[in-house]
Design brief:
The complex is a heterotrimer of chains A (about 325), B (about 300) and C (about 425).
Chain A: H1 6-25, H2 30-55, H3 63-79, H4 85-106, H5 112-129, E1 142-143, H6 159-183, H7 185-195, H8 197-202, H9 207-233, E2 235-236, H10 243-256, H11 264-285, H12 289-310, H13 316-324
Antiparallel strand pairs in A: 1-2
Chain B: H1 2-32, H2 38-57, H3 60-89, H4 95-119, E1 134-137, E2 140-145, H5 146-168, H6 170-180, H7 182-187, H8 192-214, H9 226-239, H10 244-264, H11 270-284
Antiparallel strand pairs in B: 1-2
Chain C: H1 3-25, E1 41-48, H2 52-58, H3 61-73, E2 82-89, H4 94-106, E3 112-114, H5 120-128, H6 131-134, E4 138-141, E5 157-159, H7 164-178, E6 184-189, H8 192-203, E7 210-214, H9 221-231, E8 239-243, H10 246-258, E9 266-269, H11 276-281, H12 286-289, E10 293-296, H13 307-319, H14 327-345, H15 352-362, E11 386-392, E12 398-400, E13 407-409, E14 418-419
Parallel strand pairs in C: 1-2, 1-3, 3-4, 4-5, 6-7, 6-8, 8-9, 9-10
Antiparallel strand pairs in C: 10-11, 11-12, 11-13, 13-14
Helix pairs in contact in C: 3-13, 3-14, 4-5, 7-8, 9-10, 13-14
Classes of the chains: A mainly alpha (about 325), B mainly alpha (about 300), C alpha/beta (about 425).
Amino acid sequence: MLTMTSSKRRLITFVIIGWVLLLISDRVGPLRLYQGSYVATYTLAVASIILLTGYSGQLSLGHGALMAVGAYAGALAIDKATLNPILGLIVATFVAGLFGLILGFAVARLSGPYLAGTTLALAVALPTLANEFEILGGQQGLPFDVGSSPERFGEEFSQYKWYFWICALAALIMIWWIANLVSGKYGRTYRALRDNPIAAELSGINVGRQKVIAFAISSGAAGLSGGLLVILLGGVSPSAFPLGVSFFLLTGAIITGLYNLKGVILGGLILVALPEIADSLVSRIGESEGLTNSLPDLLVSALLILAVVFTPNGPGQILKRHHSK
Amino acid sequence: MNQFITAVLTSLSTGAIYALMSISLVLVWRSTRVINFAQAGQAVLTTYIGYGIIQKTDSYWIALAAAVIGGAIIGAVIDRFFMRPIFKRITSGPIALIAPVVATLGLLGVIQASIGIIWGISYQSIEAPVSTDGFDVNGQVIAFNRFNLFVLVTVTLTMLLLTILFQKTNIGLALRASAYSPEIAKLSGIKVDAVRTFGWAIAGAASGLAGMLYIPGYYLYPNAMDLLLVFGFIAAVIGGLDSLIGAVVGAMILGFGLSFSRTYISTEILFPTAFILLIVVLLIKPDGIFSAKKKRGA
Amino acid sequence: MNKSIRMKRLSIVSAVVATGAMLLSMLPAQAAQTTGVTSSEIKLGISSPTSGSAGLVYGKVPGAMKAYFDYINANGGVYGRKIKLVAKNDKYTVKGAAASTFDLVYKDNVFALTGALGTATHQAGYKAASLAAENVPDLFVNSGWSGFNDKTAYPTTFMVLPTYAMEAKVMAKVIKDNFPGQATFIVAQNDEFGDDARAGFGAAGHKFTREFFYPQGGMDLATGKTILSAISAVPGKPVVVLFGTGDATVAMLKAAEELKLTKKFTWLAGSVGADANTLLALKVEPETIDGVLTASFMPDAKDSTDTYVKQFMAINTKYNKGVVFDNYVLAAMNSAMLTVQSLRAAGKNLTRDGVIKAIETKGSSFASAGLVPLGYSSTSRIGYNGYWVSQINAKGEGKPFGGKLVIYTTDSGTGAVSVSNFVRPTMPKNGIPTNS
């Protein structure tokens, strides 16, 4: 057999996952495809948070803003520059990454809570800025049209299957790339950075530079997920990325485990599944206005607390304990 | 001229309320090194309690007292039964810095969702206890009323009380010592845990006050204090998280900045203004205006 | 990693694939019948805000519609079928509307949507749920955005409210005829809601002395005071147009109260945010609303001499207990009545295409409480096309401005505003449609 390096193994795993997803997409209805698209999008967003907060130790509360940057960049590319939607998504990734690079520089000197505060302010400020500029479509925003599937896929290819393909593939490719990144030299660098910055500095790692790079890559991934999200919404607008999005995604990242990319899809699944579970609970307990509106949030927040208290290093922690027994 | 005066007056009123929130956040930070996002939840919870009391007794003042005392109790309970176990469980690793903050985020969600389930999410309102008609100054009605004055006076008094507490009392000294160096404080006999709980209690009281002073101009609903939390946090960061004076100064800077931008630039760029103020300050002083440079500081 | 673990992984993956394929191939084929219609029930869906600042004002809509449907159900339903309304709270956000609308169509499998509320929100919902591709009828949307009258972009949508542009043109005429020479100001949302208004005022040739815009949800006391202090020194009695949602109107009026400027201006409040009942309920003083002008296309909700109002009030008392009857309840029940007539007109063999065709051909003659005509045809999806101007008094009643009821009709473009002689169809007996 050919020598199986871990990166080759990873590639094959991702390809298999992709194939399975494509097969499944043929058999399920629009509801599951729509949910699946959200799972893919959230998983990618969670992965970007894991990279930024888990690996390079920078707590950002502003992921919504980064997603917005990507979404607007992509929308502009497709709408005004009439680019192909796939190119539009690539533009989204790069522009958001560039933005993250600049932002990363600006906040490089800020420590924990100050960084959190700045990203929080950014998260609330950036969407409203979109209102000010005519070209960004104001409050109405811009459409983010990925069109329908290409003709050669045939007539049966539904709109939602097309969304699912785009989201799943984009997420897979980006996450695979990030996984490669953190498993190699960069991964060790980040772990050193996070666990003991002083020692890292002493051993020759340029802490500042690594943090900025992580910020840039994380932002690029966030921007891509932002573009994917607005595909599902039909367009980008200032109200598509409220502050709650950043907290919501951070929750997913904590539940998944901030320090490991393995099982990141769990975060995406939970973020989509929890509101659904809440809905079915509500219909079983009996509708009351307060319950319908607040139960999903209660479940998500409660789960966040449980996760951070009992498995702060991710659910893998529980598994590891079992293994060592 | 009219516009300028209005801008100044609204700056004072809004700045005063931001100050209460930023003071709460700084109090918790100084005693626990945690950003307590749940402060907004505590504030709105105490305000709902106040609302309930107003429904029964028709008295804003009883409700206010209840909110402040209730806030103190709730704050203490959260520290003792929620934060302390968390600190005991998670003592090392990079997660130790993030976990408590994330826990407060979760707590915020739990509190707000619970309020939504118990009280419902429709908007309620609390009437101001004193007149909200603008004062008549030389025939001109200005954008400052008795209620604004009440808020301003209350916040100033609170500031004075807190300063006296921290600078002139033993417990204040204990608070400062435990925040700066828990191990040494413990060695010198200070019950660090109890002191910390006390810090949370005061913060809870301050945010309880903030809620009752803020809501009369707006509506009461589970997420009503979120905006105040964001602005309070930004104000605290601008002033420097380690400084109570910074909290107030930061709040005033933010209040003035927002008011003037709304008056003279546009009514639409509230948040971008806040962000720009913040980033400008942090680019010059990454730890806020009154940042203690890693040395002994009050 | 060694061979056995690798083998394990591959076998797990293939097992998953195989099981999945097996399970999915066992799914039953979809029964070929109209979605959302059974022999006993018709399922309709509504996505609207029932919480938050928008819910404060529009929260009553789903309940009011359901009350009317309950009344019809108790009186034979639609050809024996009972109407079930599934209501989802979209929290007036784009994401909420996208999710709610999608769920209504693909999870709840409704036959049609009715009363979808909001402009940006419904645009998102329409797209996210692929209403066009699925041919889901989108009846009587609660939005005045003229863009919804576009058969290419929104092939299944029918408006009901007159467009904001129409309202703006009527307002412009009122200002010109009654307040010549006064300075004029507008305070509006900085989105398509406000934009449509601007377009209307522009088409009517009206220029404001100064315009103020605020982000949706961003009008509060402080902003209100800022705006008022900027314009309080203007001589005379300027006209201030408040073109926003109810909570924004409340904020502006209360700010004026605190600055004692309520009588300094003539207030012209857009129909969206000027229900007198709501204003009073949100603690605006009666003296403040006394004299406020607004535009409406329905009779005033307090006018119990009007046949439709009286009937809807009775239905509200019996089927919507505890809810105060106001202009929003009136409008919602009216839309529900139009919905029932649409379902009837499509015939006993109810299909989505059938409903759409029915409204196109017969919709303009449906009975409704509106004092202006309905404009449905094979080329137009516009509902009402005009307004009359009312003046609110301290009791919250809206009476015709100038004493006599004058109905204006116009279009969303550059057409003139003309006085109309429209007489509305008599109400069907007991408010129960019998059309076919």
